[in-house]
Structures are given as structure tokens and as C-alpha cells.
Amino acid sequence: MKPRDRLRIAMQKSGRLTEPALDLLNRCGLTFRQSRDKLFCFGEGEPVDLLLVRDDDIPGLIAQGVCDLGIVGRNVLNEFKNGAGNGAASLTEWRPLGFGRCRLSVAVPQDMNYNGPEDLAGLRIATSYPALLGTWLREKGVDAGVITLAGSVEIAPKLGTADVICDLVQSGGTLVANQLRETDVLLESEAVLAGPETLPTDERGDMVELLLKRLDGVIQVRESRLLLLQTSRTSLEAVTRLLPGGPQPTLLPVAGQPDQLMLQALCAGEVSWRQLEEIKKAGAREMFVLPVEKMLA
Ligand SMILES: Nc1ncnc2c1ncn2[C@@H]1O[C@H](COP(=O)(O)OP(=O)(O)OP(=O)(O)O)[C@@H](O)[C@H]1O
Ligand SMILES: O=P(O)(O)OC[C@H]1O[C@H](OP(=O)(O)OP(=O)(O)O)[C@H](O)[C@@H]1O
Ligand SMILES: [Mg+2]
């Protein structure tokens, strides 16, 4: 293979991961000029280009060295590592990316009596993830038939082509619509930045390091929220105890109300309605949760 001096990242051409992946790269300061065939996007500022492909092809492209990194679901990456890519150059997750969250689960007809994996013995299981399912069945010591389907797996029991299924679940809506019930979770998945365990030693390696640093910053900011509220000095301790994790809050005086304080806290993740209601019960009022756009400690 010809040596390359520009970093090449593979990502899904069109699907659930396309928009969030592009958005993430943009936030890392990477912008791309789209070529007419839309399969290759040339990086405008930094020496980083994109290859837009079917998500299933991403691990193989990295293993072959056609791309240096890829943005792909853990489900697809691990299916490759357990199956087609078994024994190929080892791939690793450089970063979990926090979108495309779903799980790979076994689901059975709602009216089936199911007590555990041993009840799958002798049944036919339809899946798009034969390698991950095969590994799990071996671990459980269960001998079952694996029927590989490219899609519409949930319909297989109704059609009589399988008894149970193993497929991706997010809200669970598709399972309910097909009278199925989730029984075992094989894998918790989200989009990841995948790459070889050993990074290139040339300038591309330096670019990967820079990208990882920017990614860490972007992910930290994306998950941060600024919580603003007012509280009386007497409620301060109770309110502070309920604050979601993060650095020490900042306290500011409120003009004309000496017993009141304005509190500002950086929270490491989402602040739910339930948490807000609890904090309010402890004595807080005038509460605001704001997204953080940029952060420089
Ligand atoms: N319902 C879901 N909710 C959230 N994430 C999901 C869901 N279903 C799948 N995913 C994640 O998004 C990834 C891409 O899903 P998508 O349906 O776009 O793939 P696809 O149909 O295989 O696309 P391609 O044409 O690239 O092969 C999945 O591999 C998985 O990691
Ligand atoms: O638990 P839920 O929220 O219902 O999501 C799960 C469904 O989402 C995915 O399919 P998708 O909608 O991408 O359809 P496809 O596999 O036919 O492309 C997955 O294959 C499940 O069928
Ligand atoms: Mg696919």
C-alpha cells in the first residue's frame, strides 16, 4: 500500500451515525469539502480526510490499513473482531463517543416460557450478529442454530424462519410491535472511535494525538451543564449536598437580599427534572440549566 501523509477516517455514508459523527468532527475543528461522488471528503484545514462507506465495512477498512481510524458502533466493531476479523491486525476503541446508544439482546416471543439461556438449546435464533451471538452461546454452553439475516430480524419468529431473535434494541418499540420480549443483553453499544492498537509513527500519529485531545475537550464540554440557582444561606448546605458531581460551586451575593445567595455549579452530566425538583425541595429557586459551549480551564 502506498504511504500516505494525510490521516483518513472512515465513517457511515448514510445512516444513524452520519450526522452525529460529522458534527463531532466539525466541533473538533475539522471541516471537509465534499467531492461529487460523496464517497471521499477532502479535509480543508487539517490533513484529515473522510471516507464515507457502509458501517459494516469500517472495521475491515481499518484492519487493511485503507483508513487510519473509523467511527462505528461497538456492535459492528466487535462483530468484526469476533468473526471476519478474527486474527487480523487488532483493532481497539480509542474513545467511546456517547451517541448511537443501543444494546444487542436476545428476545423471545412474549408468550414463550423462558427461564434462562439454557432454554435456547435446540432453537433457531435469527440475527445479523452471528459471531457475537456464537461467542455468547459458547460461553453459556448452549447449542442452538444461528440463522444470519441482513435485516428485519424481528419479523423472523412470525414468519416461522426462526424461534427467537438476537438484535439491536434501543427504546424496545420494535420488539413490542412484533410481540417479542427482551431476555438477555449481550452487549451495550454506542459509537466509538476505532483504530489499530498501534498508531502510525509518522505525522499521521501526531494528528491522531491532536484529534484525541480535541475529542476529549469536545466530549467533556458536550456533557457539561452549568446550573444556576438562588438559595437562602440556611438552605445552602442541603442544596449543595444534592448538586450533581463537578467542581466546587461558586457563590455570589444577591443585591439587596443579604440572606440570599446565587449559586453557580458546573455539572459533569445531564441534570434531570427529578434532580431539579429535589434541589428545589431543599430550598433552591430561580433555577437554570445551561449548555456549555466552550471551556478552557
Ligand atoms: N435504534 C437504534 N438507536 C440507536 N442506535 C442504533 C439503533 N439501531 C442501530 N443503532 C446504532 O447505529 C448504527 C448504525 O445504524 P443504521 O441503522 O444506520 O445502520 P445500517 O442500516 O447497518 O447502515 P449501513 O447502510 O451503513 O450498513 C448501528 O450499528 C448501531 O450501532
Ligand atoms: O428498540 P427500538 O428503538 O425500536 O430500535 C431497534 C431497532 O432499530 C434498528 O433498526 P432500524 O430502525 O435502523 O431499521 P433497520 O434495521 O431495518 O434499518 C434495529 O435494527 C432495531 O430493529
Ligand atoms: Mg450496516
Automatic annotation (TrEMBL):
Q: What cofactor does this one take?
A: Mg(2+)
Domain ATP phosphoribosyltransferase catalytic residues, every copy: 54-216
The record's section on InterPro entries has: ATP-PRT_HisG_long, ATP_PRibTrfase_cat, ATP_PRibTrfase_CS, ATP_PRibTrfase_HisG, HisG_C, N-reg_PII-like_a/b, N-reg_PII/ATP_PRibTrfase_C
The record's top EC class is transferase
Pathway-wise, it operates in: Amino-acid biosynthesis; L-histidine biosynthesis; L-histidine from 5-phospho-alpha-D-ribose 1-diphosphate: step 1/9
E.C. number(s) listed in UniProt: 2.4.2.17
Swiss-Prot/TrEMBL keywords: Amino-acid biosynthesis, ATP-binding, Cytoplasm, Glycosyltransferase, Histidine biosynthesis, Magnesium, Metal-binding, Nucleotide-binding, Transferase
* Function comment: Catalyzes the condensation of ATP and 5-phosphoribose 1-diphosphate to form N'-(5'-phosphoribosyl)-ATP (PR-ATP). Has a crucial role in the pathway because the rate of histidine biosynthesis seems to be controlled primarily by regulation of HisG enzymatic activity.
Family, similarity comment? Belongs to the ATP phosphoribosyltransferase family. Long subfamily.
Q: What is this protein called?
A: ATP phosphoribosyltransferase
- Where does this protein come from, organism-wise? Dyella acidisoli
| Taxonomic lineage of the native organism | Bacteria, Pseudomonadati, Pseudomonadota, Gammaproteobacteria, Lysobacterales
